[in-house]
Amino acid sequence: MVLATRLVRHLRRRRLFPRFPPPVNRYNPLQNPSPVSSSDYFTRSPTSFNHNIQSFYAKIPSRSFSWDAYTGGTSVDSGGSASGGAAGDDALIGNSKEGLELSPVDGSETGAGLSSLGTDGSRMMEEAVEESVWYYPVHAVITLLDGYHDLTGLPWWLIISTSTLALRVSLLPVLILQLKKAGEIAKLFPKLPPPFPPPLSGRSFRDQFLLFRKKRQELGCPSFLWNFAFLTVQVPSFLLWMTAIRRMCLDNHSGLDSGGTLWFQNLTDFPHGILGPVFPILIASLHYINVQVSFQTFKFENYPGILGLLAKYYKLYLDILAIPLLLIGFHIPQGSLVYWVTNSSLTLVQQLSLRNSYIRMKLGLPELVVRMRDKISRENVLHEKSGLLEHAISADSLSPEKLLDLALENLAAGQQDKALPLLGMALEKNPELVRAWIAMGQILCSKKLFLEAAEHFESAISKIQEEEDVLLVLAYFGAGVSHICQGNKSMGIDHLKRLAELKEPDGPMDKACYYSGLVMLGSTLFQEGEKSEAAKYLRIAAAYDPGANRYLKECEDG
Length: 558
Known about the structure:
Family: Belongs to the OXA1/ALB3/YidC (TC 2.A.9.2) family.
Organism: Elaeis guineensis var. tenera
Helix content: 55-70%
Number of strands: 5
GO molecular function: membrane insertase activity
Keywords: Membrane, Transmembrane, Transmembrane helix
Strand content: under 5%
Number of helices: 23
Oligomer: single chain
Order of helices and strands: HHHEHHEHHHHHHHHHEEEHHHHHHHHH
Distance between the termini: 84 Å
Subcellular location: Membrane
Shape: elongated
Number of domains: 4
């Protein structure tokens, strides 16, 4: 029934289905002064009927709606009098034995209906089906806006603006909840194994993902889908409100033609005149500003590789999108533009507000992470390029753990020169930070300062209390590699043998480091002529990494 109703409305809009039957030349006693009774009228020969009525009958298709059913069963008896005392002209229309049938398409002489339109009929049917999907939600929004207008009596442009504000306020709790969940995820993410198996790890995708999910559940980390919670609510709401207001404008909803203000008095009209470009320019400008604010704290240099490249091109795409939005704005009714401008303005206000530390504290949101992308000094943080004071944060006021976290962030971003002074300051404040010793050793080893690197790794080994600590794997591996690279193979072999005596770690990254140490140990022993012992360690490594089989085969063949 809904589909039929929508189809009829669609045909009417295309002027294919008139709201009323075609006019017929009915008997009017005022036009003909000679009195003629209904019975006399019906006793006339068929050729005396009005020509317009006959031509109208000829256009009726073979299959349509019965006029008898349409008129509630009014009929004419054999004597020519209408049942129920109907007027003569009404009885005339209901006098056929077969019943008068209305064609849904006026003017179809063959009764083919929509077939005369070719493929346009099927296309209109598809459009009607598509419209029926949004019919109930859009109709509900239109009814809501009508009720709001009847209750307050405000002009329509204020109705649209304030209803948009109410919609955004109602969605705000979802955004706050998402930000809280995202803060928990960011806090626990460093403790989680990667969801995808590392290269040469030997793990299948299924096993690695099950390990990731198990660890996430143990830590109580929220699902990563929370990052898309607000998006899944905001986008449908925006489209629904936009579609409803656009439908009201296109259907010339009552009051919209005079419900505007200033230069947009008629909300059903499209932008025109000297001030016509105001709304399109506002929409494009607000979109561009929102994109810049969103990426304000995002630094592409902190994300090397494919991730940083994708983020860079995504921002470029959003920047260029402002041009199509400017052009689209000229082809949208002004009522829809009022909604769009209001929504974009509220988005900008929301972004700026949620960056305020006081507002975040009142909402219970975690503080934004301050990215130390600057040149670190003993007193404060200076901007590396411009030399301007960007963050007046005294390095002495930071705890050793905080300095270590900042150093690890820079190290993960490939900025070793910025991480080194932070690690040095952290070790000065707390020499027991094992992770700082290991991180410092890794940086020195990458700079080919193997002697200093070995000293830092050995310092970390001496400070680790528990034998099962996974940091021992990193420390023994780093110390062994540093000694071997500087030519002290005996010391390197001793450290790597201690690594082989440790229990296999659970973490994928630690496990990869563990078996890499075994491969290094086997290769070094093979070079020293201890082939049987080298083969023993290579067999263990080959069970985890099949790539070690070629070293094992070379060892056994040699």
